[in-house]
Design a protein that fits this description.
single chain, alpha/beta, 6-stranded mixed β-sheet, two-stranded antiparallel sheet
């Protein structure tokens, strides 16, 4: 679910502008999962641009207010969501925690870092949602601590069917500032990609696990 049409396209424009998103349909990236992908998204780059960083922070705050209401705590998903969550928590004057993919193997062996109490309501902040698996590990960790997860806000999602199913199964509402469709529309509008690449880009989104670039 996108926050708004205008916001989705503006965020997509910013991401393309600073090359936070790279599109290479003919020379794909390889993800850790083994999937070949014509797109690579690194939203951490937004942190280096104060105007864009501020815009994203304000849009996340707006999305929280309009979709969920004020929580007790803001939680960032390690690692990409931590800085975004810190900016949002500061803006709202709320406590911040962050969640690791798994418990540390030394020290206090925490998975959740920060002060958190059972019964508190939490909004989770993520930079990117692909399948949703790693993001929802954070949701499960918070619920295991007795917290009420009101939902998650992310900068960008690929919009995979698997992600939609995962969030529905976890009963965790997801709001994103932008998505793959908005990105492709903006990339086409600004000539970031050519019309000849669009078919391949959309085929990947439909079947990412089996997609391969077309041979020329």
């Amino acid at each position: 679910m996108n926050y708004s049409f205008n916001s989705a396209h503006k965020v997509a424009e910013f991401l393309l502008q600073i090359k936070a998103i790279s599109l290479k349909p003919d020379d794909p990236f390889q993800w850790a999962s083994g999937w070949k992908s014509p797109i690579y998204c690194d939203n951490r780059k937004t942190l280096s641009y104060p105007r864009i960083r501020t815009f994203i922070r304000q849009e996340i705050v707006k999305a929280i207010d309009e979709n969920f209401g004020r929580p007790d705590v803001i939680a960032g998903v390690a690692t990409g969501g931590i800085a975004q969550a810190a900016l949002v928590a500061q803006e709202l004057g709320l406590p911040l925690v962050y969640i690791r993919p798994k418990m540390k193997e030394h020290g206090q062996k925490n998975q959740i870092e920060g002060v958190l109490e059972s019964g508190q309501s939490v909004i989770v902040i993520e930079d990117l949602v692909s399948t949703g698996n790693s993001s929802l590990i954070a949701v499960d960790a918070l619920r295991d601590q007795g917290c009420i997860v009101k939902g998650m806000v992310a900068i960008f999602t690929y919009g995979f069917d698997q992600a939609r199913k995962n969030f529905l199964d976890h009963k965790c509402p997801l709001v994103t500032l932008s998505d793959y469709n908005a990105l492709i529309e903006k990339a086409r509008e600004t000539n970031y990609v050519q019309d000849t690449d669009l078919e391949s880009l959309m085929e990947w989104r439909e079947n990412p696990s089996t997609w391969a670039p077309k041979k020329t």
